[in-house]
Structures are given as structure tokens and as C-alpha cells.
Amino acid sequence: MYSFPMIQKLQARADHPPRPAGWTGIRETLSEAVNDLPPRTLLWQTFLLIALLLTLALVAWSQIFRHFEDPVRARDLAQMATSVVNLTRTALINADVERRTELLIDLAALEGIRIYPAEPSDELLPLPDSRAMRLLTEEIRRQLGAHTRFASRWKTLDGFWISFRLHPEDKEDFWVMLPSERLQQTEAIEWLTWGGGALLVALLGAYLIVSRISVPLRNLARSARVVGSGRTPPHLPETGPQEIAAVAKAFNQMAGDLARTDADRALILAGVSHDLRTPLARLRLGVEMSGAPETEVAAMVADVEEMDRIIGQFLDFGRGEPQEPMEALDLAGLVRDLVEPYRLRGIDIRTDLPGKLVLPARSLSLRRGLANLIDNAIRYAGENHPIDIKVNSAEGEATIEVADRGPGIPESEIERMRHPFTRLENARSNTKGAGLGLAIVERIIRSHNGRLDLGRRLGGGLLAILHLPLEKRRLGTRMRGPEQDDATA
């Protein structure tokens, strides 16, 4: 017997199977990690990955360049600094004592070279501790002697300071300052500038390359959502790379086949329904004139009416997407006109309507959808229970609530009940029907760029809410489900 913790561990392993070993497992892990990071679109994920790779490559090449360039440049700069020091020492040694001050002034004014005697109380700031600077100072010390010192500031003067002696046997040091401009790595800066420009050009090219893939994929996803909503998508351009063109061609062929299949289905349903309704009418007339007991006649007439209603639902479902144009419609007035015949039949329908609420809609198809909701409420809740209908508007949309006191629908079954030919036998086993009522309502409300919400009513029963936009929206811009939103992100 397994203990409860052991069962939990087995279930966890079943829910999260181990990854394949080796490179395949590493690749899957990296792929999932990248997919979980924002942004979620293929365009920006691929672009950022390429940008990261190019940046890392540029950084790596710059480090390689510096690694091999620093020793060469250190030798050149050390040779230049050593030459300046040697020439300055020679000039001071050979100059007359009276003219040394004039010489020092000329060196500072013309060459930017300053010379000062070193003192024990000098305030010095050491050079930065970097690889390039260490190579430079080691090379200069090798040529001038081990006694050579360096500083980046002498008292309050910034520069590249080097100590030297007039004679190797002297104990007195002098400081010579070289201008910082002579030590700047102009070539490296130019190289980095050109490298940055090349990086920008490469990133622009990467963006253009990735966009050639992401744009057709976005168009394909948009057309797939149109197909999923029961409409015929526009023809996709079969251009671009061979693989993208082949996918677009296959999708166009599939969409065409689906459109022809829907047209054939609508034609078959219309023909069959027409052929069935004529004998049903004769059957009802024969039943009413048969002279059978009234209760039997009423039961048979009810069965005939139920068959006629099911045929009507088949016709509604077979019509597909409504072809009626959108027009300004008073939603409150439509509900008033729709419920009046039901009230004349003695059905208790309570309404909570505004004075007037105008929105773009298809009058006939929206009336058909509301009638299906009311018929479902009557069928499942019975004619003895009141039906509540409320129309309201808020946050840019209008809502129509239809509430009954029937058995309702469990939350786990709500999504399944939106599909055609689906019935909830356990909750409503005493009812008849083809299971098309909610599917028809779903299709009609989706053609209005709205949505249908189903839930349990407080106190028992079903609460159906139709959400309709108050302003006309582009077809297909509002879809239901987070997975559809991710496909376009």
C-alpha cells in the first residue's frame, strides 16, 4: 500500500515528467525559459536574442583586441615617454645654468612638458591599477631604471608623472609630466565606435529578417481566429520565403475547403428542413382532426411542435454567420417587442429596461438569439416560474441578463454547453432538444464582437449575460480566451 505522501510524489512526477538527458533536455529548458520571459512575441524574443548574441560577440572581440593590443601599445607609449624623459634629461644637463629656467618655460609652453624637483613632502596620487597601465609602467621602468616612480597627480596638477634622475648616481629625483592626451587610446576608441555602428546595422538587419517571419505568422494567427469564429478569412498572400508561402497556400486551401463544406451543410440542412416541415404540417392537421381524446391530441401536437422547433434550430444553425448588416438598434425597444408575445401566452416575464439604449447590431439575428435564451429558460424552468430580463450599460458595453429558476448548469460544464449538439442530461434530463440553442446564441453574439457569459444564479437557476459593444468594432478584434490573445502578442 502506498502512503498518501508517496501518492502525491507519484502524481507530481506524472504531472511533470522528467526531461530528456543531455543536449535535448538543456535545449528544452532554455527554450521554456526564453518563452516565459517578456516580451512574448516571436519578433521581439528573436530580435533580443540576436541582439544579445551580437553584443556578446562585440564584447568578446573587444576584449580579444585589447588583450593583444595592450602590450604593443604599452611598448609604443613607453618608448615615447622614455624618449621624452631622455631628451629632457639631456637638455637639462647640456644647458647653461642661467638658461635652464628659460628651457623649462619653453618645454611647458611648447610641448606641455613640466619638470619639477621631487621632494619628500610631495602629495602624490597613484596611477589606476589596470592591465594596460601595469604593462606601460613596467616597460618604462625597465628602460629608465628600477628607481622610476609614477603618479597621476603631483600636488594639484593632473597628468602622467614620471620620476627621473639627471645621473644614475644622483639621489635627487625630478618629476616630468606628460600631457594626458598623449596616452589616450584614440585607435581603440575609433575601433569601438565603428564596432558599435556595425552592431546597430546588424541589429537593424536582424529586425528586418525576423519581421519577415513574424508578420506572416501574425496574419496566419489572425486568419485562424476568423476560421475559429465560423467566418471565412481573407485570402493570405502566398509570397515570401518558400516555407511561409507553403504554409499560407495550405491555409488558404483549408479555408476554402471549410467554406465549401459550410455552404454544402447549409444547403443540405435547408433542403432537409423544408422537406420535413411539409409532412409535419400535414401530420399535425391529421392529428387535430383525428377525433382522438383531447389529452392525446395535445401530447401529439406538442411533439410535432417540438420537432418543428428542432428543425428551426437546425435551420438557424445551418445559416452560419449572419449576413444582415449592422444598424443602429434600440436594444430596450427590441426586448419590449420580443417579450410581449410571451406575456400574451401567460408566461411571467419581468423586465428591467432603460428608456432607450441604442447600439450597432443586427436586429433579426439578435432577436433570434434572445428568443433562444427565453425559450431555454421556459423549457427548463417551466412556465410557472418567472423569468427576469435586465438591460443595462456600463464601461462601453451593453448587457442583457436572462435569469431563470431552472436546475442551472454546473460550472465544470459551462464551456462544453457552448458547443453544438451538446445537452446536459444529468441536470435537465426531462427536456427535449437538439442541443443547439446556446451554440446559436454563442455564434450570434460573437458575430457582434460580444460575448456570452453563463453562470449560476443566486438562489438557484441559470444566469445568461450577453455583452454587446456600444460602438462598432472591427470584425474579429475581440476574441474570447487568453490563448488567443497570446497568439497575437
UniProtKB/TrEMBL annotation:
Enzyme Commission number(s) of this protein: 2.7.13.3
Enzyme class, broadest EC rank: transferase
Source species, domain of life: Bacteria
Domain HAMP as annotated: residue spans: 211-263
Record SUPFAM superfamilies: ATPase domain of HSP90 chaperone/DNA topoisomerase II/histidine kinase, HAMP domain-like, Homodimeric domain of signal transducing histidine kinase
Chief place where the protein resides: membrane
A GO cellular component entry from the record: plasma membrane
A molecular function (GO) term: ATP binding
Catalytic activity of the protein: ATP + protein L-histidine = ADP + protein N-phospho-L-histidine
InterPro entries reported for this sequence: 2C_sensor_his_kinase (IPR050980), HAMP_dom (IPR003660), HATPase_C_sf (IPR036890), HATPase_dom (IPR003594), His_kinase_dom (IPR005467), HisK_dim/P_dom (IPR003661), HisK_dim/P_sf (IPR036097), RisS_PPD (IPR032408)
Location in the cell: Cell inner membrane
UniProt keyword list: ATP-binding, Cell inner membrane, Cell membrane, Kinase, Membrane, Nucleotide-binding, Phosphoprotein, Transferase, Transmembrane, Transmembrane helix, Two-component regulatory system
Membrane topology designation: Multi-pass membrane protein
Domain Histidine kinase: 271-472
Record-annotated membrane-spanning stretches: 42-65, 191-210
Protein name: histidine kinase
